[in-house]
Amino acid sequence: MTPKYICKYRGAISRQDRENRNHHKAVTLWFTGLSCSGKSTIAHAVEKQLFDLGRQVYVFDGDNVRHGLCRDLTFSPEDRNENLRRIAEMTKLFMDAGIICLCAFITPRESDRQMLRSMHADGDFHLVHVDCPVEECSARDVKGYYALARQGKIRNYTGISAPFDTPQNPELTLDSRNTDLRTCVDQVMHYLTPIIG
């Protein structure tokens, strides 16, 4: 809990000022799906397209965040929740800076997705479900994590020994097994462009 004597400082430059200079709104697109479903690949391809269009954009990727900001956390349910909470707080700061945030995290529990949505203001959070069956994700897994999970060498692995709750109300669903990367990116851009302006 934040102590009462800590107050947010409001500078002379607002989020609206930054969005006006950038010529687009700041939002968070949160890509959820199984490991190897294509979340990071799609998010980085969307980032490149937005960047090439002159947009201010950044991808938050699970492995990258675990190497720094959240390196003190384990993969227990409590620490996974804290991992997501920290990332959501960070995206809010980035949005205040006028930046489009693309987040690629498994986020397997519906309760966590609802928490993330509740942490953002209306219109700031958009959930993208990268839908891909576990069999296809396993076939794509060059690191061999799914095989290790099936052997019991990795515990609580989402899709094998830990559940993935199908998102109830995503703003966008991408079928990454039957849809190529270019089409997935086009679908995201078609959804996002009217929102960011």
Quick summary:
By secondary structure, the protein is an alpha/beta fold. The chain has helices at about 15-20, 40-50, 60-65, 75-95, 110-120, 135-140, 145-150, 180-195, and strands at about 30, 55-60, 100-105, 125-130, 170-175. The protein has a single domain (about 15-195), classed as Rossmann fold (3-Layer(aba) Sandwich).
Give the secondary structure arrangement, pairings included.
Blueprint: H1 15-22, E1 28-32, H2 39-52, E2 57-61, H3 62-67, H4 77-96, E3 100-104, H5 110-119, E4 125-131, H6 134-140, H7 145-150, E5 172-175, H8 181-196
Parallel strand pairs: 1-3, 1-4, 2-3, 4-5
Helix pairs in contact: 2-8, 4-5
Give a structural overview.
The N and C termini lie far apart (36 Å). The mean pLDDT is 91. This protein has one domain: 3-Layer(aba) Sandwich (Rossmann fold). The protein has helices spanning 15-22, 39-52, 62-67, 77-96, 110-119, 134-140, 145-150, 181-196, and strands at 28-32, 57-61, 100-104, 125-131, 172-175. It contains 8 helices and 5 strands; from the N terminus they run αβαβααβαβααβα. It has a 5-stranded parallel sheet, sandwiched between helices.
